[in-house]
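Exercise 7.
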Amino acid sequence: MKLPSVNLPEGFGLPKGLLIPQAELKPPNAHIPAFPAIVVPPTDLRPPQGVEPESTGQVQPPKLNIPVLDIQMPIPETAVVVTAVTTAVVAVATTSVTQSLFEPIKKKVQKFLQGKINKWKENRKKKKDSSESSKTQQRIKNTKSKS
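Solution. The predicted structure, written as tokens, is:
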């Protein structure tokens, strides 16, 4: 079976194809850092004989003795107490200020929305009443036409 073909004359006026240059992509170069080897001490490392270990000097935190309950409660450091008090004061102050600022806005928005809701309810009631009255009138007409 022979496939059909179309012979176009050479001077048909079609432009030649565009020559698109090929992009040359080079692989990226990376500087890989080299680190010196880390020496990890063995897990069973002990000081040589005759050397006394240094004391870390950890002082026990002061404790509050509650005699009735026989409980010793540790007293937190000054920095911790100052941070907690500052945070509490800022939180209470922020809440008080923002509440006094937003209360009037909240009341106005509530009043506006309540007015819209009441208007919507009135319109709904009017539509319902008008549809019921038109149905009643239709029934009256139907009963008069039957008799």
